[in-house]
Automatic annotation (TrEMBL):
Belongs to the transketolase family. Residues 30-278 form the Transketolase N-terminal domain. Its cofactor is thiamine diphosphate. The lineage of its organism: Bacteria, Pseudomonadati, Pseudomonadota, Gammaproteobacteria, Pseudomonadales. It holds the Pfam family Transketolase_N. It comes from the Bacteria. This is Transketolase. Gene3D superfamilies: 3.40.50.970. SUPFAM superfamilies: Thiamin diphosphate-binding fold (THDP-binding).
Length: 295
């Protein structure tokens, strides 16, 4: 695997549980993601706060602990791939890529402005570190499967992580890709469902019910883990164990139970905040809550 052997051995020595120092660092980075999302949406004057806030711990664990990357070489052939099905949450991904050094941090200051490579959705042609352009939901799992299958011809060895919204589970192409991935034993494919319970039109289960979600993925031939998507220790431990398992023989789905808008009380589980803009007073309230809380 592309992850250094010494890293895998260290994970195994701790039974894959991150140290207190690592947990504190990942929590701080998740907080950073939320705060930078507020700053960038202030530049754009509209954006998807709550879709980022539900996934902040997932982003943090993946980028700062689990995935094998070389920020100085964003196109490194052996890098792990990350595809964002819920492309409207890219505003939370961009600060991480800049923080890691994949592109200059001052790019963030022109987010969505004319001529900026950073738009409301990720563009793999313009942004170093973006592996898949997305926005129209439902396509990312198919793209991730293709990247997995390509390894059989190129000889590379990497994992492919695909983050999906739970509203995205209503898309037929997701299930076609799920069926195909199991058939082809795409064991390097890891889907992460951000199960925050909401989509643009309201509660997911009111629009089109998707439960029992874990049983559906298992029925399609996937290994399934259901976790608390805001428990950074559980998130990181689960991802490490999957990453280090050299005997995987099927694709993996992680259903992360999350809260839409997590970290800002007046946004949590409020569908009206799917797309919005904070006035200066509300922005300061949100920042104060995020800075004061330990999730």
């Amino acid at each position: 695997m592309a992850t250094p052997r010494k890293t895998l051995e260290a994970w195994k020595a701790s039974d894959f549980v991150p140290s207190a120092e690592t947990v504190a660092h990942l929590r701080e980075r998740a907080k950073f993601v939320r705060l930078e999302t507020i700053r960038l949406i202030e530049i754009a004057k509209t954006g998807h706060y709550t879709s980022v806030f539900s996934a902040a711990e997932l982003f943090s664990a993946l980028y700062y602990d689990v995935m094998s990357l070389r920020p100085e070489d964003p196109k490194w052939p052996e890098r792990d791939r990350f595809l964002m099905g819920k492309g409207h949450a890219a505003v939370g991904q961009f600060p991480i890529l800049a923080d890691l050094g994949m592109f200059p941090k001052d790019w963030l200051d022109d987010y969505t402005r004319l001529g900026s490579p950073l738009g409301d959705h990720p563009d793999m042609r313009k942004v170093p570190g973006i592996d898949f352009s997305s926005g129209s939901i439902g396509h990312a799992l198919s793209g991730g499967l293709g990247m997995c299958l390509a390894q059989r011809f190129t000889g590379h060895s990497y994992d492919v992580f695909v983050m999906l919204g739970d509203g995205e589970m209503q898309e037929g192409q997701v299930w076609e890709a799920a069926m195909s991935a199991a058939h082809h034993k795409a064991s390097r494919l890891i889907a992460i469902v951000d199960r925050n319970g909401f989509q643009l039109d309201g509660q997911v289960d009111d629009v089109i019910g998707i439960e029992p979600l874990d049983e559906k993925w298992r029925a399609f031939g996937w290994e399934v883990h259901v976790i608390d998507g805001h428990d950074i220790r559980e998130v990181t431990t689960t991802l490490r164990r999957i990453k280090a398992d050299e005997n995987r023989d099927k694709p993996v789905c992680i259903i992360a139970k999350t809260v839409k808008g997590k970290g800002v009380s007046y946004m949590e589980t409020e569908p009206g905040w799917h797309l919005g803009y904070l006035d200066p007073e509300d922005a300061q309230r949100a920042i104060a809550e995020i800075e004061a809380k330990e999730i």
